Amino acid sequence: MKAKVFTRRQFLKLSVSAAATLGLSRLPMGEKLFAQSTPSKKPAVIWLEGQDCAGCTESVFSCLTPDLRSVLLDVIDIRYHETVMAGTGAPAESALDAAIADGGYVLVVEGSIPIADPRYLMVGGQSVETTFVEAAANAAVILAVGSCAAFGGIPRIGIPQGKPVSYILSSHSISKTYINLPGCPLHPTWFFDTVLDFLAGNSISLDSSKRPLTHYGSKIHTNCPRRTSNSSKKFLSDWNAASQQGFCLYNKGCKGKETYADCPSLKWNDGVNWCIGNNAPCSGCTESKFYDQLSPIYSR
Length: 300
Hints:
The protein has 300 residues and is α/β, with parallel strands linked by helices.
């Protein structure tokens, strides 16, 4: 598939013209082609944002495969997403209320949810925790995208005490199927594959951290191209030494031995490169200990 590059202006025009209705197709780089026929009624999606940088949104919506025209198909219906939807203010909140009332949607949560004080994050006059609890009640499935939503991530150690989706569900005694898709940011393929598997009714096997084994079933170290350097005790000590290029980054803080993800095979930026391929250590961003318990990044 030939990639199409759009300017920001072109993207906004297309987004507005599509009335925030987006479609998804199975990503070729995941080697799973989506051949389902379009359902008569598009499954609704509500995408809430808590304490986040919108990095996961950027990752998912900026991928070139599929290109934007392939994404704008009638497969799912994103009813609410603060970052990409055309509507704002009262119309946007009305769209959210209507979607919640209809029920049976895929609820996507990006970012952690602060519990220290509801005023740390309020949208439409109420806290994001209240909005999430209301939305979770009628959701068919909940996807916690990114490390912040899945495990608390970076905001977890801040004053607002950002908590993951699982914590809020438990504290409100809400029993719902939820799937964690951690990463900083989330990889587009992890999101598309999971959503489409759910919509197709496919079984999704999860690990003990509620992550799909399809993408979080093996350690970075297992498939790392520098594994042979690790076995032969060739560890990088000088970033600028030409003779050490390609050496194992373990002594430079690489967390690949304790991090589960298929980054070595998928890579990032539409398969162009990934952290270790760019001579940077794995930071362990798909793990529950990220980042405070896996710091510092560049040393053991």
